[in-house]
Design goal:
alpha/beta; binds ligand LLP; TIM Barrel; nine-stranded mixed sheet; 417 residues; Lyase, Ornithine Decarboxylase, Chain A, domain 1; 21 strands
Length: 417
């Protein structure tokens, strides 16, 4: 099902002409399809429906309130990594008993906020964090429900910056220290062990690494249970990849089958933390061509969106397809698509064959629903762009374009100046 498509050479999102949104809100802007978001969530949920489970959508991939609210209405919980993400989740009514808190660097004020909110569990990543959570829980006269994030030392064969389950990564507790860590957790007065957690990496394109990791976790759970530690939740993290270019990631159904084969028979509730697979291909970034520079060595299409709006190409050399919003040119050329930022790494595409565009033309940067707006910054004092959601024949601005006042809000000049 494609909710971004062409009709008579014009790009539509559901029933709305993409160019008409550009006329109304200006460029650049992020655009999400409500039907795609919903369809992806429901497809993933169905794919794992043979096992007792909870989906905790990974807020870091896209944390716009409207999007979180949509998933909340479909029964989703939330995977958070900060007090800010917890605040967003609570704001849209995600039930606290469906919130899991991951991340290697939780501060005590954030831990206390989560304890006061009665979240489901903390995914603990180190011995010292375990002690910090115990300390906070004691202070608040409560007990913290926890899982330990174990590091199964599996190579997910993805980009080194987004693989997280290897021994050399900063995440989690090594498999061979896990039992000791669980025994340590057991001795802490204000800790209640309820789960085991892992996350091997992101944009994973095969089921094998998942299966290898999950088998190791199953063994760990059996070992723990033999020492009297009861595990009620197994959190399998996120990581399922998507198609940006020609990748062929497993369909959620295939992932679901791998789950059944590996951990389907353990009497626990499985937790999933998908991000990219739900939102990645539900969003695009629409940008306008400012100038075209034909060079001796290279051609450049200079657009009004930059690396501050979408940093993935600059940061990971990530590929995002770029399509014209109006297919009105037959001639093509090879060019870099670059932004207005004063950095050579400010590009959205390199050496790409594209229609011979002209100033004023609109381009759509595809697969920009995940880790796109959430990683945007104000670098070069550029106001962050709006986010728009289309539902059927209507569109809604779900985050307004920042203005110059927003840029300086919070700054102050000391009196001595
Ligand atoms: N759970 C945990 C503990 C995570 O660290 C992540 C992602 C997820 C779930 C969701 O993973 P997903 O299903 O989206 O793959 N900025 C990078 C991706 C970083 C991923 C970080 N962790 C990018 O733009 O590709």
């Amino acid at each position: 099902m494609h909710h971004f498509f062409y009709h008579d050479g014009h790009m539509f999102c559901e029933e709305v002409l993409v160019s008409s949104i550009a006329e109304s809100v200006g460029t650049p802007f992020y655009l999400y399809s409500h039907a795609t978001l919903k369809h992806h969530f429901i497809t993933f949920n169905k794919a794992v429906s043979d096992v007792p489970h909870l989906i905790c959508f990974s807020a870091k991939s896209n944390s716009n309130l409207a999007i979180l609210k949509l998933f909340a209405s479909l029964g989703s919980g939330l995977d958070i990594v900060s007090g800010g993400e917890l605040y967003r989740g609570l704001k849209v009514g995600i039930p606290p008993h469906k919130i899991v808190y991951s991340g290697v660097g939780k501060r005590e004020d954030e831990i206390e906020f989560a304890l006061k909110s009665s979240i489901l569990m903390f995914n603990i990543e180190s011995f010292q964090e375990l002690e910090a959570v115990n300390r906070c829980a004691k202070r608040l006269k409560t007990r913290a429900q926890i899982a330990l994030r174990v590091n199964p030392d599996i190579d997910p064969r993805t980009h080194p910056y987004i693989s997280t389950g290897l021994k050399k990564n900063k995440f989690g507790i090594c498999m061979n220290e896990a039992k000791e860590a669980y025994q340590a957790a057991r001795r802490l007065s204000h800790i209640k062990i309820i789960g085991v957690d892992c996350h091997i990496g992101s944009q994973v394109l095969d089921v094998e690494p998942f299966m290898d990791a999950f088998k190791r976790l199953k063994r760990l759970i059996e070992d723990l249970q033999s020492t009297g530690i009861e595990i009620r939740y197994l959190d399998l993290g996120g990581g399922l990849g998507i198609t940006y270019d020609h990748e062929l990631p497993p369909h959620p159904n295939e992932y679901g089958k791998a789950i059944l084969k590996t951990v389907g028979d353990i009497p626990v509730t499985l937790i999933f933390e998908p991000g990219r697979v739900i939102v990645g291909n539900a969003g695009i970034l629409v940008t306008r061509v400012l100038y075209v520079k034909i060079g001796e060595k290279k051609n450049f299409i200079i657009v009004d969106a930059g690396m501050n709006d979408l940093i993935r190409p600059a940061l990971y050399d990530a590929y995002h397809a770029i399509n014209p919003v109006k297919k009105d040119k037959d001639a093509t050329f090879i060019a870099d698509v670059v932004g207005p930022i004063c950095e050579s790494s400010d590009f959205l595409a390199k050496d790409r064959r594209l229609p011979r565009v002209e100033p004023g033309d609109l381009l759509a940067v595809m697969s920009a629903g995940a880790y796109s707006f959430t990683m945007a910054s104000n670098y070069n004092s550029r106001p962050r762009v709006p986010e728009v959601m289309v539902k059927k024949d209507q569109f809604y601005v779900i985050r307004k374009r920042e203005d110059y006042e927003d840029l300086i809000a919070g700054e102050s000049i000391p009196e001595f100046l």
